[in-house]
Here is the input.
Amino acid sequence: MQEVRKPKKPLIFYYGVVLIILLLFNFLAMPWLAQRQVREVDYGTFIEMAENHELGQVEVQQQDNQILFTDKDNTMIFKTGMMPDPDLTQRLNDSGAKFSGEIIEQANPIISFLVSWVLPIVIFIAIGQYMSKKLMERAGGPNAIAFGKSNAKVYVKSSQGIKFSDVAGEDEAKESLSEIVDYLHNPNKYKEIGASMPKGILLVGPPGTGKTMLAKAVAGEANVPFFSMSGSEFVEMFVGMGASKVRDLFKQAKEKAPCIVFIDEIDAIGQKRDGRIGGNDEREQTLNQLLTEMDGFEENTGVVILAATNRPESLDPALTRPGRFDRRVPVELPDLQGREEILKVHAKKIKLDEQIDFSKIARMASGASGAELANIINEAALRAVRDNRQSVTQADLEESIEVVIAGYQKKNAILTDQEKKVVAYHEVGHALVAAKQSNSAPVQKITIVPRTSGALGYTMQVDEGNHYLVSQEELENKIATLTGGRAAEELVFQSSSTGASNDIEQATKLARSMITRYGMSDDFDMVALETVNNQYLGGDTSLACSVETQTQIDRQVVALVKKQHEKATAILKENRKKLDEISLYLYEKETITGEEFMKILNS
Ligand code: ADP
Here is the structure.
């Protein structure tokens, strides 16, 4: 895409213009003015000029008792007082000057006043006005001229325009949007049957899944102008500004139809109007204007509005009703195949080794968004450059996943011998509990190299394929695996350490959602005790039950985690020998692969 906004001129340009005007004024106007001013000289100078034949015209003004005279070229006018000089006529005769009584033309005093005082002031005021207008525009702030302009970025298609093929995965979203492209190419096909295109399409999904990219791809494929603006850009300090920006945006869009208007992060203006005290008047007015504009334009005018948000539940129902944003396109986190495709799209931009197993990388990066996958590829390329290699290897990619998950390796973290041993037992505890239960993901890697995220070590488990459903047993096994680290510490060192804080947090979260949201407890049956607030942004929850029920929930969560903790301890006790053996191996090697782990376990 190419932005076709006029580039802003640098500030130096305006200073340059002012300087040139001042210089011209000085060089051209000033000398002319200076010429027509009468210069007063003494009588001696007059006599000297007369003797040197330097006089042009001379006018003797008897009644004013003065003589006006010019130089030879008539460029300067001089004035001197009359002296009793009987030789005056003779002197003038000898000098060859003209003294026929011709009146020397002096500068009109009014004109000279205008030119020397009024004109410079007018010029300066005009320059000042122009400069302040330009500076205000540059600051993007309100001013008398740019007040309420939408300042939307306008893109037109260029040869590097984003196409659907650049957006990997997301096939359902692409299918839904290609209908729009078809409509923009061939609106008559739709008009003939009487079908009307949705006026607005809402792209919803977690951050970094390619919503903005998809919108740009629609414009790229349809070859129409693309207006892009973020929801927050509408909201100004002054009430009414946002509304006028909306009006301006739609006016421009209608002029340029067929075109696409894209409003990113629409939740900034589209939030529910709940009439709270201290509500935001400006935001509500902006939203009202948007609702009116979307109602106002006819169907099939060729203006398609795309909007993106990751908080669809917070949008005002008036905005999402049919006739406004009547189609909702979910842009979800990519599945295994989607991740692999996204990796491949981004890998085209970098030099790769011949043997790269993208499917393995995709499996390791489970839960990653498109933006994170792009980041993984870039991290791998940076790593190859750091090591002075010509291409990116499989190891670079695997390491960069760990960098994105857990941060960089801490080069100078010094663990005491005892701490290192505790971490080794802790990690093998997780791995062993995972391996000894059915239905848990295979261990891929165990490491006790500290990371910048604060993790002193971790066990990476990688699922083989896509998982859409998770059973109760799998969830329980997961909790047992999470408690396995602490169980190993207790078993071997008869003490606990702070290293398990993250495991505890995750295990509690899982156990709580099993009871409050997945109906996996005996007492509550299929009752929802918690609701998820924002599904795409972390998914924090709020309880919807009585205080007594909350107490019961807490008890059940504790019981569930405790049961799994005991199960983990039992598994480790049973395999105490293997636990010692593998922990010692890990302690020495610091990082072991899943295969090494399984080999010792099965030996
Ligand atoms: P969103 O608007 O959903 O937050 P973006 O569209 O801005 O996300 O995506 C951010 C970046 O992530 C893109 O520039 C692109 O590099 C990468 N990306 C995200 N999803 C995809 C995808 N499906 N295919 C290819 N690249 C993607």
Summary: The mean pLDDT is 82. The first strand starts at residue 2 and ends at 3.
